[in-house]
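Sequence in, structure out. Go.
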Amino acid sequence: MRFRHRFPTRAPRATAWLLVGVSLIPRVAGGQVDPRPPAGRIVADTVPAPALAGNLLGDPTVQPAWVYLPPGYDESGRRYPVLYLLHGVLDDPSVWIEPAYQGMTVQATMDSLIGAGAVRPMIVVMPNGRNALGGSYYRNSPVTGRWGDFIARDLVRHVDARYRTLGLPGARAIAGHSMGGLGAIWAGMLHADVFRVVYGMNPCCLCCLSAEQIPEAIRTLDAYPSIAALWEALEEGDMWPLAVAGARAAFFPDSDRPPFYGDPDAVSGPEPAVAGPTGERVYAVSRVADRAAALRSLEGLAFDSAFDDQFVHIPLSTAAFSDTLEAHGVPHVYEVYAGDHRNRMRERMATVVLPWISERLPDPAPEGTTSP
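Output:
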């Protein structure tokens, strides 16, 4: 069954929240505020990334990641479910550990929610998805490297080996924002044997852009002489040249077109292409038919968009994605809410996204349980 909310909606919650600093502190009966909950901790990690070997942008085959370990992890001996959390284009994983979204940090939010019993204790892994062009779009590309395989294979293998995880597909969720929302949805479509719970927040690029949605940067990108010039444009306030170059190299790679290694004709003509250089369908909407069985096997699939998203293709493409999923009998939740691309991230992470994910993951296993 599909649940579509085309109006601002907020489900009732058993717990009321008081915003304090960068954390969410639960209130108890009588209006008293609970003491600060037990703290988890953040670990800086490095992840071998053989899937990125040979990429034409020179990105390294060792990638950074931040890992949240829940309160009691060091003492309990238990094994935990894992949420993989993907950042957006031009960001990096520090967006989750610094107060970037209305003062939100993953550590403070998770500590508070776990302390209030609103989410299960879980490990949260925040990997890098930013490359020399500002964003990998978490896709496999002969130009940028196999970023999809890095997330689903290299990263998961590393996390299961290094941390006390349950090590089962049903104990793994993947979520992300914008480019990361796209990455989460792709992971669910292509790797349902690895991730069984998927949430895409304002996911970009689910469908092709219409001619009127194509930013001018697509048409003028090749006037820039180098990748460094794209970063200079970003410093001057123009994000589009870098974002477009990254998307083009990920969706429409062309190894014979340095320095940006993307096919300019694929996205700049009056009829933007929907197929990559080898004929594969590059947009999630166009892959639903052949991935419907995998999508139906998920424990949960949800995504959302905001009425006033600055990236005008997102509300249109998420609606098209939902329509396509419904046509192929794929259960999912699609919510449209009042807001823009980023301005309600903190609130929605705490009251919608993380509780929804937690409901679909198992509890930590008793001490002494081993993963397969």
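Check: The longest strand covers residues 41-48. Residues 214-280 form one domain.
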